[in-house]
Amino acid sequence: MRRALRHVAGLAVGGPLDPALPLTLNFHPDRLAGGLPILRRMAEDGVYLSQFATGTSNGGLTARPGGDRWRWESRIFGAAYDSAPARVRPVYGALNHRLRAVGAAPRFGSAHFRLVPEVLARSTFCYPDSSAGPTAFGVAARCDLVARASADALAGHASALDGYVEAHVHGPVEWGRDVAALVLDPSHRGTPVAEAAAALRCPVEWHPGFRLALEVLEENAEFRGPAAVALGRRLAEDGMLDPRMIGDAARSGAHDAQELKWLWHCLVHFGSPAGP
């Protein structure tokens, strides 16, 4: 951890981050991990683990020796984790510089953990996303990435899916110590997700919610293509789509995983709640 932090600090430029900006870890709270509901798996683990340990991801699943994620981390962190056990690798989130109620990076899920400010000191940052081969990096003491992301947003280069400053938290993320709140979509009220959330040792909050009218999805079919629209027609209830419907479909195993991801992108892009 110390080697990785020193390496990225040597690449960072700019002034200190605003300590009031929260770190968030977005994820889908209704998926399975190792055959268990992911929140129950998290409660058993006691910490938030990276895809190297869980074998699950809401992005690309390349966390294996020689895989894309392994190579990106080797480059970004100066090979600090190349021989490290999976459980000690950093976990990924984003800096919520836009103060979005749904978390900084809803591309990766409808729920998020909002971390306590103390976690900033052991976090590193990059912009853009690590999958894009970034050359701009930051740590809490030196970081100009918010200005870069904000400039892209003003130029119209950032959407509800993108424009986040990626964060890497080094060291364990424990529920009772490092998490200020678990923030869920209201479509999960009264479901097993809400029940499992209560078992974690952290407060539970609710954001305004993702909702997308089927007619809006159909009007924007070019965004992720006809397959996503067709899937949306099958899953919609009373002409609406929400995260719970997509999660139910994902757990059923009856639908193409890529099409489900495309549909989720549509829900985030066109169905994010109003406001920051």
Which labels suit this protein?
DUF3626 domain-containing protein; two-stranded antiparallel ribbon; alpha+beta; 276 residues; 2 domains; 11 helices; 8-stranded mixed β-sheet; 33% helix; single chain; DUF3626
Give your account of this protein's structure.
- It is a single chain.
- This protein is of the alpha+beta class and 276 residues long.
- It has 2 domains: 1-206, no CATH class; 212-271.
- Helix content is 33%, strand content 17%.
- It is built from 11 helices and 12 strands.
- The protein has helices at residues 2-11, 38-45, 51-54, 68-76, 145-154, 175-178, 192-197, 214-219, 226-235, 243-252, 257-271; strands at 23-27, 32-33, 36-37, 91-95, 111-115, 123-127, 136-139, 165-169, 179-184, 204-206, 212-213, 240-241.
- An 8-stranded mixed β-sheet has the order 7-6-8-4-1-5-9-10. Strands 2-3 form a two-stranded antiparallel ribbon. Strands 11-12 form a two-stranded antiparallel ribbon.
- Strand 6 (123-127) and strand 7 (136-139) form a beta hairpin.
- The chain is globular and about 55 Å long.
- It starts with a helix and ends in a 5-residue tail after the last helix.
- The model has no long low-confidence stretch (mean pLDDT 93).
